[in-house]
Amino acid sequence: MNIKLFKNLIQILAKNFMFFLVLFFVSRLLFVWSYGNSEELSANYLDVIVAFIMGGRFDISVICYGFLPVLLTALIGLFIPQQRSLGYLRFFASFCKYYLLIPLLVFLSLLLIDYFFYQFFQSHINVLFFGIFKDDTTAVLDSVWKDYPIFSILLIYIVTLGLFLLVSSKIVNNSLQRFSNSKVSKVSWLYLLILPLFFIGLRGSVGLFTLRRDHTNVSTVAFINALSYNGIYALKFAKSELNTNSFAADLKEELVANQFNSLEEAYIDYRPQAIDSFDNEFISKTAQNDFLEKNPPNVVFVLMESMSYHYFQLHSKELNLLGDLEKELPYLYQFNHALSSFNGTIYSLENLTINTPKNIISQSEYFDVNYSGAVAKPFKEQGYQTYFLSGANTSWRNVDNFLLNQYFDIVQGKAHILKRYPDAEEFAWGAHDEYLFDYIEDKLKENTKKPKFIFALTISNHTPYEIPKHHKSYPIHLSDSLKNAIRIDEQLASDNFAAHQYAASQLAKLIRDVRNSPLGKNTIIVATGDHNIRQVFEYNEETSFLKRSVPILMYIPEAYKPAVYDKNILAAHKDIFPTLFNLSLSNQKYVYSGDNLFSPKKGYRFAVNEYNYMADSVGAISYDNDKMYYYQWTDAKRQKLKVADAASEHALYMNKKFKSYKMLQTAKIYQDIERQKKK
Questions:
Q1: Which of 508, 505, 569 is nearest to 330 (CA)?
Q2: Angle of CA points 612, 616, 620, to nearest 5°
Q3: What is the SS3 string spanning 428-491?
Q4: Integer-rounded Cα radius of gyration of the chain
Q5: Rounded to an integer, what is the distance from CA 72 to the centroid of its chain?
Q6: Are 324 and 625 in contact (CB under 8 A)?
Q7: What average pLDDT does the segment 242-271 reach?
Q8: What is the mean pLDDT of residues 77-83?
Q9: Model pTM?
Q10: φ and ψ at 597, to 5 degrees?
């Protein structure tokens, strides 16, 4: 065997390998510098060290996969005749130099994508990433072009590739110069150890298991756990999660996965302390009400793009994030401790329309199932005209076809609004909010004998943050403390603040116009955010509730006002429509998803986000890589959380309540799918 040649080939491989390893290490340092909290990292420095070591293992594994063709080419060198050694060495050096440009480009691209993905979502690449390819491609590219430093990114590519070619050329020259003087010794045979070492590198482990998601749990601090792997593995985990979430609607399998022997067990676990009652089919019923039967109100529900309760807290005269909405708040019921169902628009939209823990249904084979939990169904059964209206293109994510199967009579979007208002301003995602709200008002005023249920989706507070030129903004002044707190470019943050203010002002106009018109006597308006905007501020375990928090606002005419109201109770998207059904419909059945927020009955209230985070009056639990974490509130106002014992009695109680709730919601979706199959 030509061990002399093999030794030199492996040296070239190793030097190129080190370049890649340094690239990954630098990217992790940049990640820490950009997104890390120095106090949190200092307090947990041992965990940070462990995370970097674990991250190195993930990096080595990724690089080894990229270097497989290089290793195989080096192995061939063992069988090259001595007289052809120099020629093969030159070939190998050139092969490394040019082939490795491919994995370098792929890895660098994924590291950059992951870096900016984290900036927006405060998470490594996850299943939301795959939704990008199903969004409006032109709008996505427009957002990328306007919101991200394209020229800086191009510069990173140029510098990295140029540096690699320079280093690789030096490696080639040095190797060729040293080859003739290199000698074979007993030590040279140790280079054959590259084979088992490379195999270990591929696995990332010498233990029974290869590197898995479980290995990323190195700390109780979520950000430190995020340091322990890279964007390439994040994409791999996300793809696995996507495949896992491609469900077959198998109820028996779901029961086993959630450790229930039967659906009745889930009912037994969930029923204690439930506020609203429901039967064994998970069906609730509103009270009989003569007034509602004779005077059914119009109901308008508005899902506001990225409306954040955090922004409600930050609002001031200097940093005006609410615009005209501030003047309308005294007329509204407001719930200050509320969570969105999911952290992405399509996910929250689906959950609110059909009560599903499973996504994305609109683009699955089950999009045309008539779900019994569809929130338009109770209104439809009471003789309402049901609408879904949005400034966006309703073909986005197959939403139009999906919703037309969910008891909506009319599904209309950008095209209808632009036809009604030819001068309406639009941007990448569609017509701006003010025109959508004008359209809603027009629909409410249309002379029909039927009451109306309108589900509306806004889009203006979405990247790229562009608002109509004629809009007169309130002051948005970034203090020094705020500048230090934001994690993105100041201009982009200011644009986001302005878009939030604009959207809030337009919502205020809708409420004010209705309130001051004859419609104000019999029209209920409810608004909430589809999710918090996580692009601007850094959140941690302490502020994990705020990270997921959205406002819930309700305008309720005098004749329909509830007798009981507590703005401080815990609430979530799951509770909105049960509340609306009880406010507007008499003696009406509906699928239980949550509890009436105005119910006088005392019981156990909780909020759920992403079906992996749950909060109640005592604390919160979250699930990460199949591991449960538990936190307790540090103050009576429920502003901050602290890590607590996940084995405590209350943590286990929350876990039991959460699993049974999720199981029951999932079962209803599966039963509907199975019923449709039998038709």
A1: 508
A2: 45
A3: CCEECHHHHHHHHHHHHHCCCCCCEEEEEECCCCCCCCCCCCCCCCCCECCCHHHHHHECCCHH
A4: 29
A5: 40
A6: no
A7: 86
A8: 85
A9: 0.76
A10: -70, -15
Residues in CB range of 184: below 8 A, 6 or more apart? 3, 4, 7
Residue 122 to residue 547: CA distance in whole angstroms: 9
Residue 83 tokens, joined: 């007289």
Where do we find the tokens 């229930």?
Answer: 260
Euclidean distance between the first and the last CA atom of the chain, given in angstroms as a whole number? 70
Q: What is the pLDDT of residue 143?
A: 64
Q: How far apart are CA 519 and CA 521, in angstroms?
A: 5
Whether 623 and 662 have beta carbons less than 8 Å apart is answered as no
**Range with the poorest average pLDDT among 44-48, 120-124, 366-370, 427-431:** 120-124
- Tokens at residue 292, please? 């509602």
Contacts of 269 (CB under 8 A, 6+ apart): 656, 657, 659, 660
Model confidence at 131, pLDDT cuts 50, 70, 90, reads low
Q: Which one is predicted more confidently, 177 or 543?
A: 543
- Which bin fits 204, alpha (ψ -120 to 50), beta or left (φ > 0)? left
Closest CA to 242 of 130, 350, 343, 345: 130
Q: Which residues contact 293 (CB under 8 A, 6 or more apart)?
A: 586, 587
pLDDT value of residue 391: 95
The Cα–Cα gap between 388 and 403 comes to 8
Q: What is the pLDDT of residue 181?
A: 63
Over range 62-70, report the average pLDDT: 94
pLDDT at 136: 57
At 302 the three-state DSSP class reads strand
Alpha helices by DSSP H, 339-489: 345-354, 376-381, 399-403, 414-420, 433-445, 480-485
Residue type present at position 380: K
pLDDT at 183: 67
Would you say residue 242 has pLDDT above 90? no
Sheet holding 627-633, edge to edge: 607-609, 613-615, 619-624, 627-633, 641-644
Q: Which two tokens stand for residue 371?
A: 């779900």
